[in-house]
Design a protein that fits this description.
heterodimer; A: 116 residues; mainly beta; four-stranded antiparallel β-sheet; 0% helix; globular; B: 109 residues; five-stranded mixed β-sheet; 9 strands; 48% strand
Chain lengths: 116, 109
Amino acid sequence: GAVVSQHPSWVICKSGTSVKIECRSLDFQATTMFWYRQFPKQSLMLMATSNEGSKATYEQGVEKDKFLINHASLTLSTLTVTSAHPEDSSFYICSASENRGRFEQYFGPGTRLTVT
Amino acid sequence: LAKTTQPISMDSYEGQEVNITCSHNNIATNDYITWYQQFPSQGPRFIIQGYKTKVTNEVASLFIPADRKSSTLSLPRVSLSDTAVYYCLVGDGGTALIFGKGTTLSVSS
């Protein structure tokens, strides 16, 4: 099946700094990618939908100025957490769809962000 | 709001068959039903997908009745390594999947 990678797999940053997380579709082109956040013992929460070449669509309650999403190519989307705070510590997961007659979404392995 | 409802948890023993049922009363005509498995600190992993009737692959079967308002994931002969959270989702692939709470399956020896 199709593979989605994320980088880094984990990151620790200091409060007030920014961190960028990359999501790549390795063997297919993804016009749409999705970003989720997952807190411990909870389900995945959709943060935003990212379309190649256009602005991301954010879910209600997600600050678009804090979570910057860029989808510059058909294989790469990035999530930048700006001015990170400890409450932003979470597991961030991206997914991408290969909508060629199939309707699966492929998920990345996730990125563990810890803000100290 | 999640489009699906599943039992919060299930317990089983190794070697048994496990059936997890999911309700999706408001499924749309274009929606497929997809099940994912998630281990702690990992992204969800695709298990199986179907539109109607029965689908089987090397790891699971998916049963979907004619009205498509529910579906049942069947895991044959589970092992300890099948302990995970299982999510049932509906969607058309191009739109975001809205996760419910999932079903935590615990397999014991």
